[in-house]
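Page 42, continued from yesterday. The earlier attempt failed because a stray header line got pasted into the input along with the sequence. Redoing it now with the clean sequence only.
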Amino acid sequence: MRNWQLAAGAVLVAGLSVVGLRLEAQTASSGSSQPQPALSPKQEEAKALAACARMVVTDLHSLQIPEARSLRFQGKVSEAAALCRGGQRALQFRGTPWVDWENYWGTGDTASLPTGFLLNKPPAQRGVAGALVDLELQRVALIKFNVFDNSGTYKQFLEGRDGTPGPALKTWPEMRLAAGSPAYNEVGGEGPQVCKGDLIRWRTTNGICNDILNPAMGSAGMLFARNVEFETSFPDRALNDLTRNRHGNRLSLLEPDPQVISRRLFTRIQSKPDACASGYGLPGDSADANCDYQKAPFFNVLAAYWIQFMTHDWFTHLEEGHNQSDYMKVGCETKLVDNKEVPLTSEDIERLGCRPDDRMDKGYVAQDSAPGTFTSGSTTYLERAPATMSNNNTAWWDASQLYGFDDRSRQRVKRDPADRAKLLLVSAEGSGSAYLPVFAPDDPINPEWAGQEATGFPDNWTVGLSFLHNLFAREHNSFVSEFRRVTAAKPLADSGLRDPAHPLQVIRYKDVTPDELFEIARLVVAAEIAKIHTIEWTPQLLYNEPLYYGMNGNWNGLLGANGGLLSKALSNVVAANLGRSKNAEKATQLYSVLASGPGIFGLGSKVPGYKITDPKYTNGGVNHFGSPFNFPEEFVSVYRLHPLMPDLLEYRELDKDPNKIAKKVAVVETFQSKATPLMHSQGLANWGLTLGRQRLGLLTLHNSPLFLQNLKMGRLDSKTQQIDVVALDIIRDREHGVPRFNEFRRQYGLRQLTSFDDFMDHSLPADSSERKQQEDEVQTLREVYGQHVCDASKVITDAQINEDGSRINDCLGHPDGTMVDNIEDVDTAVGYLAESVRPHGFAISETQFVVFILNASRRLFSDRFFTSCFRPEFYSTLGVDWVNHNGPGPEMMEKGTPNGHAQPVSPMKRILTRNIPELAPELKTVVNAFDPWARDRGTYYSLAWKPRPGAEADDAFHEH
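This time it went through. C-alpha cells are written below.
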C-alpha cells in the first residue's frame, strides 16, 4: 500500500507541476453516453494502455489552469484520459453533465476494480491517482476564480496594491480593528496594527487576532463572503441583462412558492401516516411508531448531529437565536398553471397540507444599498454583492459552540470552581454521572433556552447536541486531568509552552495557571474537532478511495503522516518560498498543490529559527489566497442537510439488549429543555448507542423530516405558531442571494444541465422502479418550475461557453423558439437533492461537494492555530502529542487494514471510549464512528447493509 501511496502522490504532484499556463480549450468533448462495444479484459487493458501513452503526448494542456473562468476545467477529461483511467465505463458517461472521475477504476467498490487484466493493480492506481489530479485541478481553479470578499477588498484582489499582485496580498486595511473595539489600542490603534501578547497566545473569544496582521479577520460580526461573482447573486432582483435573460423575470422571494416546493418535492411519503403522526410519533414513545424515510446504509444519525454541532461553530445569521422583529409571509399562496402563477384554492391548500397563515421573522441584512462599482481593464465590476449579511459567529474552527463567540455567550460557559481549568460538570440526580449544568435564572439567555444545559451556542438544542456537548466537555476535562497527572509526575519539566511577553523563559508544568490550562485545553479540543471532521466524518460522508486520500492529504499530507523524501522536499519548498511569495501565480495556485505533500495541518510550524514574537513565523504558515477569510453564503447554503435527520430516534439500551429498539422517540420531542431530562435519565452511553447504530436519511428529494414541515414554535407572531422549516430553507437562500442551481454549477466550474431530464440516471434500466421514481420527480419539477419558449438571442451567462466557443444562450442547445424547461430557475437546494448521479459512497451531491473542495481547505489554510502555530509554545508538548496521537500515549492502530489501509484508531472512536468507557465493547469492531456501529464494513468501500458478527438479531436488519 505504501508503494501505491507514493504512486498516487507522485502522479498528482508531477501532473500539477505545470499548473499556471493557459488552458486553450475546454478539456473534453461531449462524448457519448451510449454503451460501447463489449471488449475482453485483455482487449480493454491494451486499449487503455495505448490511451495512456496518447494522453502523455497530447494532454498536457488538460493540466493547465486558464486565465478566463469561462475556460476552466469542468471535471470532464479527454477521451484518452478517460480510457486510460477507467476503460470503457469511463468513456460511456463522458456525455453526461457529471464529473468523469467517478467512473475511473478504483473509485467505487470492488465492482470498480479491474479484473482479468494481466496486471490488475496499475489500472486501479491510475484511476485513483487520476481522480486526485482532477480534484486538485478543481481546487486550484476554485482558489483562482471563486474567492470574493464583501468587505471592500475585491478591487485590490483584481488590481493589486503597491506593486503586489492582488492574489498575493496578505494584509488589508479593511481587516483592522475599529476604534470601538476593546483591543483597539492593544493592537496598535491608529498606527500599524499587529496583535501581540495574550492576544496571540490563545484563541480569543470573539475570534480577533487569529491572523496577527489582520486582527478583525474571521471575528464575530464580519461579513459573509461569496464564492460566486457578485453580479450573479440575488437573481430575483434582475439587476443585469444576463440575469434578466436567464430567468425572464420569473423569480421573487416567494415565487415559485416555497411551501408548494416543500410539499411537492421534499415531503416524505408515508406507508402508515397514523403511525408517524406528521413526525410526532405515538404516545409513550411506542416502538410501534413508524415514519418512513430513505436511509443511507453507510452513515449514522450521530453524523447528522455532528454536522449541526459543526455549523453552530462556524456561522449564524441570527442574533442570539432570532432574526428581525418584522414578520413576513412564507408562502402557501400560489402555484404554476400554464406557466403562470395563480392563487392556490382552498382544495389545493388542503391537499398540499401547507399553511397560508404561517409567518417568520425576516433575516438581518447588514448592507442593502446599491454597491459601488469600479472598472478594471474594460470590465465594470461590483465592489460587493447587492446586499450583505453578517456572520455573527466566529468564522474560525475554534469550538465556539462550546466556549462562546462573544462576551455574552462566554458568560454562559461554566467553569469548575474547584479547578478553573475544567468545565463544570455536575452529577445528575439518580444517574451517577456528571453532565453540563443547566442554565441558571440569571444567565444571559433567551427565555426558550431555560432548562437546557449551559454552553456557548444553545440555539436549536436537541438531545443529539446535548450528547456532543457533554462528550467534548468531558474530553476537555480529560485533557486537563492528564496535564495535572504529568505535572504531578514531573513538575519541573519544560511544558513546551512559551509566553510572547517572555519568549525565552521556560514554562514548567508547575508554572501553568488554571486560566492558561483552560485555554490550552480549548486549543486541543478545537484541533481534535477539526481533525475528526477532516479525516473521519468527511471520509465517511464521501466514502471512496480518492476522498480517503484527499481528506487525509489535507490533514497529514498526501504521502502520509511521516512522509518521505518527496513530502519533505515539498514541505521545505512551501515553508521557505511559497508561503511568503509575492508571485500571485505561485501564492494562489501552486501553494495549495504543494501543500498536498506535507498536508495543511502544522504547515509552517517546523521552520528553523521559529520565533513566537515574530509574525513572519507565527503567521508564516497561513495563506488566504489574496482574499480575507470568512465563510461564503454559498457554503451556508450547501449545509442545508435536513433530510439526514429521521423523524424518530430508535432508542436502545446498552445494558439490556443493544440489538432491540426499545422505543421510538420523536426528534421534535427532544428539543430545548426536553433534552436535559432525556439525557440525565437515560445516559450518554445509551444515547451514543442509539445515535451510533441508526442510519440517517439520504440527501434526496421526498426525504425531508415531516416534523420540520410542521414545527411548532411558540415564540412566533402568527396565527399558526408553526413553520415549515424546509420551505424556510429555500426562502433564506433567496434572502441571502444564492444563485439558482444551474448558474451555481457554472460558477463553480461544473457542467450545466440543459433540462430536467438531466437529473435522471440514464444508466438505470428503463423499467426499473428507480427510473420510474426519477421520471415522476422530473415531471413534478416541470409542474413546479414550468417551461418557456426559448430565445437564442439572449445570452444567459459569462461563466462558461459552449464547446464551439459560442456563448451560452436561453435555449441551452435546444432549437430556437422551442419549449424548454425552466432549469435556470431551480433553487439550488432543490437541484442538489435532485442529483441522482453521484460518485460512489457520496452522501452529498457533486454540486455540494465542489463547494467543500474550496472551503474545507481554506478554513485550514487560513488558521494559524492549525498551521504555523501548531507548536508546543501554544498547545504544550502534551497538547501537540494529544492531537497527533488522538489522545494520551502513543498512537493506537486499528487491527488489520480497513479498505486496504493501515490506519490509526480514529480520533472520535478514542474520544468516545475515553469519556464513555461503557461503549468500548460496542466500538471494538467499529473503524469509523460515523459508520453505523452494527454494520459489517465489508471489503473495499462496500455500501452493503448487513450486520457485523453479534448484531445479526438487530431490529434494524429485519425491517419491513
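Notes: The first strand starts at residue 295 and ends at 300.
Reminder to self: strip header lines before submitting.
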